[in-house]
Amino acid sequence: MTEAPARRTPGTPCWVSLIVHGLTTTQEFYGSLFDWEFLPGPDQLGPYVRGLLHGAEVAGIGQLPPDRHLPIAWTTYLASDDADATAEAVRSCGGTVAVGPLDAGDAGRLAIASDPGGAVFGIWQGSDHLGTMTAGVPGAPVWNELVTRETSMVAKFYQTVFGYETEAVLSADFDYQTLQLAGVPVAALHGVGHALPRDRGPHWMTYFEVADTDLATARVVELGGRVLQPPREASSGRLATVADPEGAVFTLVRPSGSDAFGR
Predict the structure, then answer these.
(1) What is the per-residue pLDDT across 62-72, written as a single tens digit (0 to 9) for each?
(2) What angle, 0 to 180 degrees and rounded to 10, lies between the N-to-C axes of helices 151-162 and 83-92?
């Protein structure tokens, strides 16, 4: 197990959260799938719990008000030293800030934004809570990737707002750029053209590490979820794209080696 660093470099994916209708049933799903336990978290935006893996915080799950009907999706949070300044940069670069910036108790300050293509992400200025506190073990987030139509225009947005360097995968039929900080890949942009799901649009995808992709995929179905893309081999490992019972999409991955996902 590798401990997450104490302070996140701005732009580093540092947390993932999910807002759902059924908080209890969702906890049961992820608790059974990833062996998470749960503790109450800041409730400024409604009931909220943090998922813990072997005592270390890995993700958050909140509950939507009964009258709100928003898309159910995992949200990737990117670290910031100043959420207000980052939110202003998002606006000035053609993005939108939908929530905040606002304080989440003593945990930190957050905003929910979207890039010019409409993909939603979070901004997190950590105080008492710095983000995901473990990595490299099954049940923990291992990678975050923007799935969009094409990467060139949106890459400029993320470069300007967060200071990323980008490195493109040179391939005639593969539109993929890694986002790097100090030469280390921290996330990626994946342009899929017309293969982008019409019902979702551009979106950030959270990858969770598992010990066995095929077994974990079968477990998703047993627990009431569904399979969108069955297990398949990729350069980073064995992947499967699945959805939880409320429709939140995520990817399961058994990484191919220690160099997968820049770790």
Answers:
(1) 999 888 878 89
(2) 140
